[in-house]
Amino acid sequence: MDFRALWADPRVEGFARLTRAAMRPPAGTGRIALALGLGLATHLIFAAAGLAMITAMFFGLSESFGRVPLPWALVANFLLLAQFPLAHSLFLTRRGGRALARLVPGPHGPALATTSYALIASLQLIALFALWTPSGIIWWRAEGWTFALVSSAYAASWLMLMKASFDAGLEVQSGALGWLSLMGQIPVRFPDMPTHGLFRIIRQPIYVAFALTLWMVPVWTPDQLCLAITYTAYCLLAPLLKERRFAKRYGERFETYRRAVPYACPRIHPKSTQHTDGQ
């Protein structure tokens, strides 16, 4: 393995740079304690949110802690469904970004905005999957070899999501960018426009992978169908806003990439995108 080439990979180099800076932090007890505290809380809650999602969808949302009686359960579940995509998109606007920068009082709020964003998103997902009130109706449950096949597809979808998150920039997707930058007292620097890995095949692999996790489940209920339809629509539409931001930020470079790489469905004979990877 060529370790020199590995460390030069932009998907690794940025995270490695952050880690090196954080391991040799300049003096500042309060700053270091804030960075470590928020970073630890974010990653623990991020892991809990991932576990809640994987477990709840594996059982088709048939198991949860929500116990709201009908008909109010329908209202509660609708609000739980709506709160994640609405807030997730709102915080990506300029006004939402300013709000994130003010969530942590004091001078370090702007540096911690990306960490705050990941923390809020994780809490939203925990709320959705832990507080959902199940309908109690199970339409279909995989058994035998079908269970093994569907469960394997479900696991593969999550692996694809993790790979796409790595390709997009692990420091941003995990929330580490903000607190590691503050810890090392270096400017927050976002990863470059992703064009490596799964981003060579489609422009939105994270959203596609998440949509796949919604449908590759071994238990089907009305709850899971409602979740799958709603969030698949979000996964198809929300990236359009992301691409507007990329078009403004990267200009002709993004337009060249957009012409060469399809949105969500891979081409059978994909065009070469080597000219977009000069990073």
What's the SSE blueprint?
Elements: H1 3-8, H2 10-23, H3 29-58, H4 72-90, H5 94-101, H6 113-131, E1 140-141, H7 144-173, H8 176-184, H9 205-215, E2 219-220, H10 222-250, H11 252-260
Antiparallel strand pairs: 1-2
Textual characterization of the structure:
This protein is mainly alpha-helical and 279 residues long. The chain has one domain. Helix content is 66%, strand content 1%. The protein has helices at residues 3-8, 10-23, 29-58, 72-90, 94-101, 113-131, 144-173, 176-184, 205-215, 222-250, 252-260; strands at 140-141, 219-220. It has a two-stranded antiparallel ribbon with strand order 1-2. Helix 4 packs antiparallel against helix 6 and helix 6 packs antiparallel against helix 8 (176-184). The model is unreliable at 272-279 (pLDDT under 50).
